[in-house]
Design brief:
Catalytic activity: GTP + H2O = GDP + phosphate + H(+)
Bound molecules: guanosine-5'-triphosphate
Protein name: Signal recognition particle receptor FtsY
Number of strands: 8
Structural class: alpha/beta
Helix content: 40-55%
Organism: Nocardioides lentus
Enzyme class: hydrolase
Distance between the termini: 135 Å
Function: Involved in targeting and insertion of nascent membrane proteins into the cytoplasmic membrane. Acts as a receptor for the complex formed by the signal recognition particle (SRP) and the ribosome-nascent chain (RNC).
Strand order of the largest sheet: 3-2-4-1-5-6-7-8
């Protein structure tokens, strides 16, 4: 019996060992499978966060490739947020801005006409009154020669044609309009010939509003569905380049730029090359206008123009003048016109000056038309110059 009991104990012991080992083996293989499953689990993070959620229980779900981790990389890389698409403005059309800006022009310029009409409507137009009329015109920056001409013509006509209020207004309007010269061609040459882009070079002293004007012209062109590239050749001041880049972003226009201090001519060259390559309609080139001396300016602008013309002819050279600077502006205008062939004038800040007479003076001085006027700091506050509307604004 004792011998039998020993056998039973031995068999039971062996069975126990077998059961324990089996359980251990089973759980080992289970752990390995779990381990395998971990390896094929989709990685968290990465581009998957942008993809639709994946159903891992599906048999046909593709297994993700093993993730490789750079030694220094964070364990769970954070996906940077996708950059928001920049908002693109819809610039105001030229027609709509004209209506809006006419009122602003009347507000800033109307005093001249009102003053003149009050003087011309006096019962007796004696010498003192004519002197006051002269002073009023000179104060509005019309310039000496045009003032004398205008006074002569008014004297003659009012003596002959009568001096009722309606007559006086009509005569004054006609004579002012003649001085502003409605016959000048004020169209902007923004298109090139033979498939070349139009090249508009914008010059003027710093602070006159050049960069702002380049941005505003880009908006006018974009509102007419023209394709534009801008060249930030004012490499002297990094902020000017940044400023232009912001204008470009707002209307989805590429801005060609170089590091601060780059040769402006190389930026201008690159801008025109890019414009040609992309087949755009117009390239606008902003320049630096340090007026430290005429020779330096001549060197710089002359080179910019020469280099551009290796690629395409310059179709328009716009001189930007600040209307509030009066006679100083005239001196600048003279210097620039000796350095480059100015083909049009942009008169900025007319909203902040009652001296609209500068239009007459500068056109006379340079023999080129005012083509655009700046009437505020708003993005669409630039309007094509219209002689008739301007004269009406002068009369208030
Ligand atoms: N009120 C008014 N301000 C204007 C007008 N045009 C430009 N300005 C302002 O004039 C200032 C100078 O303009 P900018 O375009 O920086 O002048 P800039 O000639 O390019 O000068 P740099 O960038 O230094 O070369 C800015 O504050 C403009 O907002 C305008 O028509 N009316």
């Amino acid at each position: 019996m004792g011998y039998f009991a020993d056998w039973v104990l031995l068999v039971v012991g062996l069975l126990l060992v077998a059961v324990v080992s089996g359980v251990a083996l089973l759980s080992g293989s289970r752990r390995r499978r779990d381990g395998d499953t971990d390896e094929v689990a989709p990685p968290s993070g990465g581009t998957d966060v942008l993809a639709p959620e994946r159903d891992d229980t599906r048999q046909d779900a593709p297994s993700a490739p093993p993730r490789t981790v750079e030694p220094d990389a964070p364990a769970a890389p954070v996906e940077p947020e996708a950059p928001a698409a920049p908002e693109v403005d819809r610039p105001e059309s030229a027609a709509s801005r004209l209506v809006r800006l006419r009122q602003r022009l009347s507000r800033s310029q109307g005093a001249l006409g009102k003053g003149l009409l009050a003087l011309l409507s006096r019962d007796r137009l004696d010498e003192d009154t004519w002197e006051d009329i002269e002073d009023t015109l000179l104060a509005a920056d019309i310039g000496v020669a045009p003032t004398q001409e205008l006074v002569e013509r008014l004297r003659t006509r009012l003596r002959v044609e009568g001096s009722g209020a309606a007559d006086v207004r009509a005569v004054l309007k006609e004579e002012l309009l003649a001085l502003v010269d409605p016959g000048m061609d004020r169209r902007l040459a923004v298109s090139g010939e033979d498939g070349q882009p139009g090249v508009v070079l914008v010059v003027g002293v710093n602070g006159a509003g050049k960069t702002t004007t380049v941005g505003k012209i880009a908006r006018i062109l974009r509102s007419e569905d023209l394709a534009v590239v801008m060249g930030a050749a004012d490499t002297f001041r990094a902020a000017a380049v940044e400023q232009l880049a912001t204008w470009g972003e707002r209307v989805d226009v590429e801005v060609v730029r170089g590091p601060e201090g780059t040769d402006p001519a190389s930026v201008a060259f690159e801008a025109v090359r890019t414009a040609k390559e992309k087949g755009v309609d117009t390239v606008l080139v902003d320049t630096a206008g340090r007026l430290q001396n005429k020779a330096g300016l001549m060197d710089e602008l002359g080179k910019v123009k020469r280099v551009i013309e290796k690629q395409a002819p310059v179709t328009e050279v716009l001189l930007v003048l600040d209307a509030t600077t009066g006679q100083n502006g005239m001196v600048q205008a003279r210097v620039f016109s000796e350095v480059v062939d100015v083909t049009g004038i942009v008169l900025t800040k007319l909203d902040g000056s009652a001296k609209g007479g500068i239009v007459v003076a500068v056109q006379r001085e340079l023999g080129v038309p005012v083509k655009l006027v700046g009437l505020g700091e708003g993005a669409d506050d630039l309007a094509p110059f219209d002689a008739e509307a301007f004269t009406e604004a002068l009369l208030g």
